[in-house]
TrEMBL record:
Alphabetized GO MF terms: AMP binding; protein kinase binding; protein kinase regulator activity
A Pfam family recorded for this sequence: CBS
Identification of the protein by name: CBS-domain-containing protein
Similarity field: Belongs to the 5'-AMP-activated protein kinase gamma subunit family.
CDD domains registered for this protein in UniProt: CBS_euAMPK_gamma-like_repeat2 (cd04641)
Record GO cellular component, one term: cytoplasm
Extent of Polar residues compositional bias: 1-11
Length: 391
């Protein structure tokens, strides 16, 4: 069986050249009926497989679960997230009521920074973060007008298909898996199913079906793309200080202040922003976790740095920006996610790598577990004999 091999597509902050490498391209932009049917059949086979497997099946051989008490101070919780190896989220536990209380993520820290920006000074923030507790975060979100994350959960014996649907319907990136203690009746946090873990499970166990997903990402509508060419002329009166030629994608440059990007994270509910030059060439990516790393010492003044200055403080083990082209196939993309452990891909065009779009794991998962295929109105019973059933 032929498998896709991920190219070397990492970008360092000072990268000026790209290495050309072979990648699996999608076939004709106008797929024939045979290709289309094989594509849809493969999708239905993957969905059927997920319906026959439980969340337990996606558990790694060895893992740990860090649960944080809601009475814990935010600063200590942040230290837990940044421990080795670092994690980007943790379940919350209400010890007074012995029950699950949601998730603590880097987005909570972004909202906290935003809150102090509007209500206090950096000095006040540095002092308050020593005492503010996790249980206060939801009230802070309400004061910012940020939607409270849904208190979702699922049982470990639920099918992976239902778990995936839950993630899509709630726009969540992770799904806590809870059981009940048979003696006490109290809830037990068993694990957390993430989008990445689910897609990796699909990549490993449905490799045969994935090999039939030859159609291009752009053709399938996976991801968010620039609505107009960055080089297209701007009508008189159209351009303003808020004009974004890469709409609807939020972008920044190396001279953009970190705090401006923090605003984007909080107000738009995103977790990464492509960093481009004056020609729209992608030079890096700034993520929410970069902000957390920047302020872990309590130096909130660091938020006044430019993106370029902040990137110089980034850990040397940063894996780089993973890019793809809109003509790449869905099958190639799924393999790339598994091999590079990526959570988003920047779509570029041209030899220099001009920004064209961005693809998140949510985009990929939403397409894979959707109800229909290309050109179909309802999901039909898959004929597995045509594409094989060895998973």
């Amino acid at each position: 069986m032929e498998t896709a091999t991920a190219p070397n597509v990492s970008l360092s902050p000072s990268a000026t050249q790209r290495r050309s490498s072979a990648r699996r391209r999608a076939g004709s932009q106008v797929p024939d009926r045979r290709q289309l049917e094989a594509h849809n059949e493969a999708l239905r086979a993957i969905r059927l497989y997920l319906k026959g497997r439980t969340a337990y099946d996606a558990f790694p051989v060895s893992f740990r679960v860090i649960a944080l008490d809601t009475k814990l101070e935010v600063k200590k919780a942040l230290e837990c997230l940044l421990s080795q190896p670092p994690v980007v989220s943790a379940p919350l536990w209400n010890s007074a009521e012995c029950k699950f209380a949601g998730m603590f993520t880097v987005s909570d820290i972004i909202h906290l920074i935003q809150y102090y920006y509007h209500t206090a000074t950096y000095e006040t923030a540095a002092a308050d973060v020593e005492t503010v507790r996790l249980e206060a975060l939801r009230d802070i979100e309400k004061s910012l007008g940020v939607a409270t994350p849904p208190l979702i959960r699922e049982h470990p014996s639920a099918s992976l298909y239902d778990a995936a649907k839950r993630l899509i319907q709630t726009h969540a990136r992770r799904l806590p898996l809870l059981d009940n203690d048979t003696e006490t009746g109290h809830e037990i946090i068993v694990s957390v199913l993430t989008q990445y873990r689910l897609l990796k499970f699909i990549a490993i166990n449905c490799a045969h079906q994935i090999s039939y997903l030859h159609m291009s990402l752009r053709k399938l509508g996976i991801g968010t793309y620039v609505t107009a060419s960055p080089n297209s002329p701007v009508q008189e009166g159209e351009k303003s200080k808020d004009y974004n030629p890469y709409h609807p994608i939020a972008t920044a440059t190396l001279t953009t202040p970190v705090f401006d990007v923090v605003h984007m994270f909080s107000e738009r509910g995103i977790s990464a922003v492509p960093i481009i030059d004056e020609n729209g060439i992608v030079v890096n990516l700034y993520e929410t976790v970069d902000v957390i790393t920047l302020i872990k010492s309590g130096a909130y003044q660091s938020l006044g740095l430019t993106i370029g200055e902040a990137l110089n403080k980034r850990s040397a083990d940063f894996p780089g920006v993973v890019i793809c082209n809109s003509s790449d196939s869905l099958g190639y993309l799924i393999q790339l996610i598994k091999q590079r452990r990526v959570h988003r891909l920047v779509v570029v065009e041209g030899e220099k790598g001009r920004l064209l779009g961005i693809i998140t794991l949510s985009d990929v998962l939403r397409y894979i577990v959707g109800d229909v295929g290309i050109g179909e109105s309802v999901e039909s019973t898959p004929n597995l004999s045509e594409i094989g059933t060895e998973l």
